[in-house]
């Protein structure tokens, strides 16, 4: 997925930090479903949809709702008329969102590449950049967070249930019980292997 943004810069919401190196982009986007949200804080349809998208994203990634954040990343591609308008809109959105900097002509390239003619639009991409859904606005409205399961299967993401979470900004916080769950998993797995080994020895 980082190949889509090679040589480009993304900004971290509500901060001045930039994600611009190939390594940083790789860590931010690897093994995740990517949502490209094309919108504007001044568009009436976008103002109606934005709270829905915010809630959708938070319910999949915020520790208030889920123990482990889903493998999901969102990049805001704005049609705001001024940088102040873009910044004001982003301040009301989740901190985990990324954004194409205001004034970057790459926004137009993305619109052309994915055939975005009107907003709001949410393009859903696999980690390899292939399109899963051309515009998921209606699906997000109708189905809500459960539709992520379909995208996850289509994206063929690697299951990270027993892997350490990797977040490019290292802001995500795992539950304090995670190490115990991983240890329990290892212990149970080891016991099963020993039992299987004794059973096989007895059969011989």
TrEMBL record:
InterPro entries (UniProt xref): RdCVF, Thioredoxin-like_fold, Thioredoxin-like_sf, Thioredoxin_domain
Domain Thioredoxin intervals: 1-163
One Gene Ontology CC term in the entry: mitochondrion
PROSITE patterns in the record: THIOREDOXIN_2 (PS51352)
Single biological process term from Gene Ontology: photoreceptor cell maintenance
Gene3D superfamilies per UniProt: Glutaredoxin (3.40.30.10)
Protein name: NXNL1 protein
Originating gene: Nxnl1
């Amino acid at each position: 997925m980082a190949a889509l943004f090679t040589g480009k810069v993304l900004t971290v919401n509500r901060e001045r930090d930039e994600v611009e190196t190939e390594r940083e982009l790789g860590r931010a986007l690897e093994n995740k479903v990517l949502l490209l949200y094309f919108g504007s804080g001044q568009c009436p349809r976008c103002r109606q949809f934005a709270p829905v998208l915010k809630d959708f994203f938070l319910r999949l990634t915020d520790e208030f709702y889920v123990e482990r954040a889903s493998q999901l990343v969102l990049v805001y591609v704005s049609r705001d008329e001024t940088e102040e308008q873009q910044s004001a809109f982003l301040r009301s959105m989740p901190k985990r969102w990324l954004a194409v900097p205001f004034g970057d002509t790459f926004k137009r390239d993305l619109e052309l590449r994915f055939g975005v003619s009107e907003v709001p639009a949410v393009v859903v991409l696999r980690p390899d950049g292939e399109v899963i859904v051309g515009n998921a606005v209606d699906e997000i409205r109708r189905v809500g967070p459960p539709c992520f399961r379909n995208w996850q299967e289509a994206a063929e993401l690697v299951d990270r249930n027993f892997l350490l979470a990797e977040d490019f900004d290292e802001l995500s916080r795992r539950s304090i019980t995670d190490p115990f769950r991983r240890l329990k998993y290892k212990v149970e797995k080891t016991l099963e292997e020993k039992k299987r080994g004794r059973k096989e020895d007895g059969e011989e």
